[in-house]
Amino acid sequence: MPYFIEAILPLALPNTFTYAVTEAEYGFLQQGMRVAVPFGKNKIYTGLVASLHQTPPRLYEAKEIHHILDEKPIVTPIQLQHWKWVADYYMCTIGEVYKSALPSGLLLESETIITPKKDFVAEGADLNDEEYLVYEALQVQSALKIQEVSNILNKKTVLPVINRLISKNAISLQEEISEKYKPKAIRYIRLQEQFLQQEQLSQLLEVLSRAKKQREAVMHYFQLQASDKKPVAVKKLTDAGITATVIKSLIDKEIFEEYYIEEDRIQFEGSNNAGFSLSEKQQLAFNSITTSFEQHNVTLLHGITSSGKTEIYIKLIEGYIQSGKQVLYLLPEIALTAQLVIRLSAYFGNKVAVYHSKYSNNERVESWLQVLEGSEKAQVIIGARSALFLPFNNLGLIVIDEEHEQSFKQQDPAPRYHARDAAIVLANYHNAKVLLGSATPSLESYFNVQSGKYGYAELKERYGNVIPPEIILIDLKDKYKRKQMTGHFSDTMTDAVAETLALGKQVILFQNRRGFSPYIECMTCGHVPQCPQCDVSLTYYKYKNALRCHYCGYHIASPTQCHKCHSTDISTKGFGTEQIEQELKVLFPEKNSWRMDQDTTRGRHGYEKIIDSFKNREIDILVGTQMLAKGLHFDNVGMVGILNADNMLYQPDFRAFERAYQMMVQVAGRAGRKNDRGRVLVQTYNPLHNVIRQVTENDYEGMFAEQVYERHNYKYPPYYRLIRITLRHKDYEKVKNAALWLYNVLCSQLQVPVLGPEEPAISRIRNEYIRSLMVKIPPGTGLQPTKKAILKVLQSLDAVAQYKAVKITINADPY
DNA sequence: AGCACGCCGACT
DNA sequence: GTCGGCGTGCTC
C-alpha cells in the first residue's frame, strides 16, 4: 500500500503537491509538520503537510520527500483553515500565504553546494583557466556556493563551467538545506564532580597555589555560587576580570567543565502590576464594551485622541489572560510597538511578546514557538499585521488599535490582505472577540456599527481634563494677496510657532510630502526632469543636491542647467518636509528643528531615535509626514501646524476625503496636554471646504454621513466591494490591448459593473506600463462566485499567446 | 514564482 | 567564436 502527503510549497502555484512517503513516515507525519521536499530539477523547499492519503497520482510519479523537519506540528489546523480563507478571499495561492505567514527562520530554501571529488587529480585532466580557478578554490575551501563561484570567476553564468567540471569528474553537487534557527545558548561552568568534597577541594587549591590567576578564578567561582545560588555563567567570571584563557586552562585541566543552557533571546523585565484605575468615563466605556461583547463578536471603540484608550485595552486584556486566554494586539506601525511594549510589560511583566517583520529571524521563531506552546511568556502578543499569522491555540481577544490605518492592508507581495478583516475571521475560528479602536474610525467599520453588525462603545472626553485643541484656519489665498507669507509660512503660523516656543513648548509641523520639492522646472523652456523608468517627475532633494524617483529609487545629481535648453534659470515647484525644515532654520535659527519622514527614519532604530529626542525635548520643532499621525503621544506639544491641507484633499482616490479628515484629526490630536489647551493651525486655500469644516468642528458624524452618501451614489465601499486588476508589461501596446480584451470578456462574463481600462496617474513604473480595471460587486451579489468567474477569465487571458506575458495582480478590497 | 532550456544579437 | 538577452514551459 503506497503512502502520500499533500504538501503546500511557498510558491505562487495554485495547487498542493503530492509526495510519496514510507509507511513509517506516514505513521509519524501529521498535518502542520514541515518536510524538506525536492522540487523541479534541483531545488529543495520547505513544504508543509496539508493532508495524508493513499491515493496515487494518476498523471505522474510522485517524488519522495527528502526528510521530515519537525517532531510535532508547528502550524495548527485553525491556521490552515485561516490561510485557506485568506487565499480565497484575497485571490492568491495558499503557497503565498504560507510564505508570508511563516517566519523565514522556519522556511528554508536549499542552496547548491559544490564539493571536490577526493580522488580527482588535476594533472593531465586538462582544465581550462576558469575550471582551474574553481578547482583551486575548492582545495582551500572544500565547499563553494554557486554565488561564490560566480564571484571567483567574476561572471554570472557559471553553470557551463560547473557542468564541465562534473563531466571531468572533478566535483560533485549537493543541495544543502540548513536549519537557520539556532536557540541562543548561554555558556556556564561548574566544578567537576570529584572536587565537590571538602578535602579534594583543599587539595585543588593547594595544586593551584602556584597558578595564581587560576586560583583566583576558582575562588571567584565559589563566591558567585554562594551569593547567587544559581548556575554560574562564564560571562559572570569574565565580567569580573577573569580572562577567557584562564577559564579555558581550567577546563583543559578538567577542574571546570562547561555546559550550555538555552536562553530566551527576548526578555522584558517588568514589575508586575503598576496598578491604576480607570476614570469614570473610561469605566463606562469599558462596561459598554463588555456588554457589547455579549451580543457582538466585534466592537468598535470610538475614542477621541488622548482619551486613554490604552488603559481600557489593558483592563480588558487583563481579564482574558486571567482566564488563560491569549491576546493579540495589532498596531499599524512597527515603530509604535516599542512604546506599547513598555506600557504593557510594566503591567503584565514578561507575559508580553512582540512579533513583527523587523525582528530578527531567530527572535521571530522564538515568539512563534512560544505562542504555539501556549507559553506564559507569550500570552499577550504585540505586533504589526503579520502577527496575525502566529499559531494561536487559545485566542481570546484581538485588539486592533488605530483601526482606520491603511497600513493594515498589505499592498505588495501577495497575499494582499487587510489585517483588520482577516483578524475578524480568525477571531471567529477561535470564538474570540475583536476590539477595534480609533479616534477616526474607517467608514467601513462605522458603517458596520450602524447596520448592527458590530457593537459600539465610545469615549468622547479627553483623559484628565485635557481640553480639545483650538483649531485655527488660515486662508492662504488671502495671505498671499496681502503678502503676509514668508516662504510657506503665513505670519499667523510663524507667530504661533514663536509664541509656543517662547512658552517652552514644542511644535509639530505636518507636511505630507517628503523631499525638498516634488519637482523642478526650467523657467525658460518649462522642462521638468522626469524619471527615465517611471512616468513621474523627479523629486528634488536639496540636502543631497539630487533628483530622486520615489518609485524606483533612480537618482541623478541635481542639474545646474536645464538638460533641454541649457538655461540656468531653474526653479523648484511645490514643497516637501525638507524645504520646511530649511525655512525653519532661517525663521528660527536658534531653535532645534528636525525632520521625520521615510528619508530620516531608515534603519532599525532611526524612528525611535527621533521620537526619543523629541520626547526628551532636545528637538523644538518636528517637521514630518503622515508618520506623525500614527498614535504617538507627546506631552509637551503646544501647537500643531498643517502647512497645506489641500494636497490631501485632492488625491485621485474615492477615499481621499475620509483620509484627509482622519489625517488632520489625528495630527491635531498630538497637541495639548493637561490643563493646557493646544492649538492647531491649518493653512489652506479652501477654508470653506466641507472636510476642513468637519475637522474644525470635530464632526465625525457629519463627515461620515456625507461620505457614505457619496459612496452610495458612486457605488463604492462600504456598499460595493471592489476588486482591482492591474496589468503590467514593458510593451505599451501589449498592455493596452490585453486590458481591453480583459475588460470586454469580464463585462460579458460578469453581471456586475466593471470600470476601465484605466491608465493610472502613474502609468509606468520601472519601465513597465500599467493599466488597471476595477470590478465593482454590488451588495447582495455573491463574492465567491464573482471571484471564481474573474479567475476563470484570467485563466483564459493566460491562454491567449500574445497576452500571457502580461503580468497581472489582483487586489481584493484595495485600500 | 523561479528556473532551466533554447534561440538570437553584441562583444571579450 | 562565446555571453547574456529574453521568450517558453514546467514544477508533484
TrEMBL record:
Catalytic activity: Couples ATP hydrolysis with the unwinding of duplex DNA by translocating in the 3'-5' direction; ATP + H2O = ADP + phosphate + H(+)
Keyword ATP-binding part of the UniProt annotation: yes
Keywords on record: ATP-binding, DNA replication, DNA-binding, Helicase, Hydrolase, Isomerase, Metal-binding, Nucleotide-binding, Primosome, Zinc
EC number: 5.6.2.4
Highest taxon of source: Bacteria
Residues holding Zn(2+) 1: 522, 525, 562, 565
Cofactor descriptive note: Binds 2 zinc ions per subunit.
SMART domains: DEXDc, HELICc
Short name of one Pfam family: Zn_ribbon_PriA
Domain Helicase ATP-binding residue range list: 290-459
Domain (Helicase C-terminal): residue spans on this chain: 535-711
Cofactor(s) in the UniProt record: Zn(2+)
Catalytic EC class: isomerase
PANTHER family associated with the record: PRIMOSOMAL PROTEIN N (PTHR30580:SF0)
Family that this chain belongs to: Belongs to the helicase family. PriA subfamily.
Cited function: Initiates the restart of stalled replication forks, which reloads the replicative helicase on sites other than the origin of replication. Recognizes and binds to abandoned replication forks and remodels them to uncover a helicase loading site. Promotes assembly of the primosome at these replication forks.
This protein's name: Replication restart protein PriA
Protein source organism: Flavobacterium rhizosphaerae
Gene that produces this protein: priA
